[in-house]
Amino acid sequence: MLDQWINGLVIGNLYMLTAIGITQIYGVAGVVNFAHGSIYMFGAYIGWMAIAWWGWPLFPAIALVLAGSALLGLLLERVAVRPFARQGSTILLLTTIAAGLILDNAAQVIWGPQTQALRNPLPHWHFQLGNSTVTLLDLFILACGVGTALLLHLFLYRSRAGWAVRATAQDREAALQMGIDAGRVSRLSFALAGAFAGLSGLLVGLYFSNIYPTMGASATLKGTTAALLGGLGNVPGAILGAYVLGIVEAFSVEWLGSSYRNLVAVVLLIAVLLFKPRGLLAPRRALNPEPTAGTFIPHGRPLRFPRWAAPAAVAAAFVLPLALANPYPLQVLSIGWAFALMAVSLNLISGTTGQISLGHAGFVTLGAYASAIFTSRLDLPFSASLVISPVIAAAIGVLLCYPALRLRGQYLAIATLGLGEAISLIALNWDAVTLGPLGISNIQPPKLFGYELVSPAAQYLLAFVILLAGVWIVHRLSRSHLGRALRAVREDEVAARAFGVGLSRYKSIAFGVSAFLAALAGVLLAHSYSYIAPDTFTFALSIQVLTMIILGGRDNIAGAVLGAVLLIALPESIRFLGEYRFILYGLLLIFMLRFRPCGLLNART
Amino acid sequence: MANKKGSASRIRMAAVSALALALLLAACGKSNVAQTSAQGGTGASPAATEPVLIGVTGPLTGDNAEYGKQWRKGFDLALEEINGDGGIDGRPLEYVFEDTQSDPKQTPAVAQKFVANPKIVAVIGDFSSPASMAASPIYQRAGLVQLGITNSHPEFTNTGDYIWSNSSNQKDDAPYLAQLAVNELGKKRLAVLYLNTDWGKTTVDLFIARAKELGAEIVAQEAYLSNEKDFRPILTKALDADPDALILISYYNDGALIAQQRLSVGFDETVAVVGIGSIYSPQFIRLGGEAAEGVYTSTRFYPGDPRPEVRRFVEKYREKYNEDPDTFSAVAYDGIKILAQVMREYGTERRAIRDGLEAIRDLDTVLYGKASFGSDRRLQNPRFVNLVVQNGKFELWQP
Q1: Is this prediction's ipTM beyond 0.90?
Q2: pTM of this prediction?
Q3: What letter would DSSP give residue B189?
Q4: How far is Cα B242 from Cα A109, in angstroms, rounded to an integer?
């Protein structure tokens, strides 16, 4: 028992380090930054070079890491944030994702993809507690976390520059009128955030004695969870949240097993978001100042095309298999159509209803598993499963999401992220039904009216027809009174409620239809891949689908389809670049967003 | 005015999108052009110097990129030897490496690309099971051999008769490890930690079945997720079961972390650590440091192995890369060598290669010695060596 408490505290220590960085800078300065994890990783590599290559002692290495990652933070601000500052936080979400992608891939090119050993240069002094040992490094990490938290607190609350940072976060316009140089404040925030991320990367690297180019992702996820548990912007809350998370995880391993660890963390997070949305340490308050969802995706209105454009595009897509002898572009496009269906379905939640979902992969997984189980265990024909599986997946999806629909804005986004992860973890742990980690193999190919649809052209046409059906459903829905009600929820929840639009009910309709279509895409992919496992549809997919609709244009069905096809075809068409492929992909994404901030098919209003 | 400007921007926008799409499709279709001209070439008379192409689908970026890099070293060395020795009937052997990030959304497209390119005569890869098996039906239907070099998923070769593997097979590896732990090291109370993936689950089930047969007791059995870094809680749980050996069904990265963290929860030298062959890599020692000392493993591939075929491979590899090969570069080397031997004997037609894989006997391989494929389309009768980490090196170990 004592040992697990200590294990929880030791890992909580590491979560604390990342959580403080996230909560202080992003909570207080109100900046979304998905490249945090990448700077964290770069910091670790800078420290590793100093210690392992040049033989520096720890403290000069830390100074170098602080300086280097602060510079990197400034660079990030210059390239991926400042040009987009006026375009709302969703665009920043995307540009920072793109910047993170560039940094992660650059690290792979510079230092190689393999894990590197990072030896702890501190003396190997330790003391015994029960069976466990606590080392000097553990204490050093604790001191760094608390020390920097104090310094940041003093800076933000006692210095003029710190006041400027907080004032800008509260009201940018007002701050500008008071003579605050908002650009300087933004640079300062990013330099500080960078330095902090880099330091935590180095210390966590020292703790595990290893570093690798993709180390940032999971660390930021845990850090964000801890920060949310404590309430964003609340430093003592983040510290508490980190230790609570560490201890809960340690005991979930003790009682349930390590495979349940992240599932328990997700459930904990959602429970806290539901019952104490402002965090464990939040004061009781009647009204929560939450980010309004409507401003989350930049406004714009769809470009108008001539009436013949849509039928012409559809006709062209239908004859394409005749014109192309090579199955490769057809295969790329048929996967493109499946992703377009996901994008169209997410567009209903995020574009039309204005709710951000980061868990779309979960719906896809539900559909894929439902159909795989029905067709291979219960011998249901594909045609029946095509209808039944998405309905069942949508029902389960809505049931799971329903409690979370009370949440708004970014909190709902985090909750859906958690649910998406939870669905794949359930698929992993529920051996009896899903075959657990082995996944389901030899799923039958799509078969309709006695014909096996196995040729690339047949799969292409099947995917395209299903996409058209999905587009038709969403189009009809968004033109109906239901669509107007959903838009009302997006524009102003309070006003919508005042006009008698029940928020939870309409949100669950949007989630239900969306889950149905995403699950349909899942069914399609499961039968086309013939094998699915819990890690077939991941969080990266959810992010990618969101990227597609932002690229295409909010609340724009044609935009969602175009965004999906572009983002699937783009990495394929630049294959010849090898390792540099995703660096260019990130750069292209930033450029597109720079020049079409409302999306490719939306014009500025 | 505003209206006019709007329509101008619309037209510009439409033109730009159309252009972008056209460019993308053109880029995707490029191989189309190359292919038709190639067909014209082969139709007349195959040029004697036209290379024989193998398609490789695998990760060069993303989470598994390091394994793709190791593969490439093995491939390059094998090609150097084959082409230095006359290639395939005078034609040089080459490979095209398409990066898939081991992502099931990218592998089917790459599969179609390979299938559509008549110059590609066989395919190697992909790395993970979801990625490889999403592409298998396409290879099977097109009649193009897919040789999985790291695919231990028990269902991998079951997609059809064009799907083959020279990967380690858990049916052999796991029972052998049980024998090492129970019979040779004399351990009776085993705590097993395993990676919760298709590979880990298959391996642990086979391991436990054999260990129980040999009379050992499984005192703890704990799964962990592939992105896990913090092993202290499960190690504490395992320690509470009072084991005399800790069995790791792990890869070298997580294996090294477990070896390290076991010391900080109170494991001492009295509990032996025995890891499956996948922990065998110079990286395990580099990452594990002193904590790797005394860890046992059994592997099919060991650079210090006295067998002549291994000696030859290791010396050439060291000469070229100035480091020791690991299992991933060895399977990659074997993969290319197997295909080359088949092609030399049975020709470079896609169908002929499949038939050749079935017919050929006594292939020269590094991992298996002289070996042949069985009816499960996997290589049969692997050999093992037992190793222990001593003074920062893997050394041969005899009971």
Answers
A1: no
A2: 0.81
A3: E
A4: 45
